[in-house]
Amino acid sequence: MNVVIMIGRLTKTPELRYVPSTGKAVANFTIAVDRAYTTKDGEKQADFFNVQVWGKQAENCTNYLDKGRLVGIKGAVQNRSYETQNGEKRYITEIIAENVKFLEFGEKKHSERSYDENGYKTLEDEEVPF
């Protein structure tokens, strides 16, 4: 069984892309999840997780979430690998979200993003998880 449930804050605004071959939306972002304990000095510690969400939820995350917002994630852990242009093998562990709950609402601040001629970022072949 591979089920993950997390609550954390976005570390940056989600990035929306569309898979060129299918046109399916995919958004990527990172959340910081506080650990249950503090250091000897009383400082909180956090773990950082890369999250990927697909379809309409991806579009909603991009439209309504921003850096610092609190979200709940339910999904699964997935590992994948790819080869760089230099021939080095890289491994990625990420959470593939099946459900994203917005736990804080507010007006989204629009950040500057670069888009292609169609208005979207596109995925490279090594970024497609299937």
Defining traits:
mainly beta; 1 helix; 7 strands; globular
Cα Rg: 16 Å
Report the total helices.
1
Q: Give a short account of the largest sheet.
A: 5 strands, mixed, barrel
What value does the average pLDDT take?
Answer: 86
The largest beta-sheet arranges its strands as: 1-3-4-6-5
**Range of strand content:** over 45%
Helix content range: under 10%
Task: Summarize the SSE layout with pairings.
Elements: E1 4-10, E2 15-18, E3 25-38, E4 44-54, H1 56-64, E5 70-83, E6 89-102, E7 121-122
Parallel strand pairs: 2-7, 4-6
Antiparallel strand pairs: 1-3, 1-5, 2-3, 3-4, 5-6
Q: What report would you give on this structure?
A:
- By secondary structure, this protein is mainly β.
- It is 7% helix and 51% strand.
- It has 1 helix and 7 strands.
- The protein has one helix at residues 56-64, and strands at residues 4-10, 15-18, 25-38, 44-54, 70-83, 89-102, 121-122.
- A 5-stranded mixed β-barrel has the order 1-3-4-6-5.
- A hairpin with a 6-residue loop joins strand 2 and strand 3 (25-38).
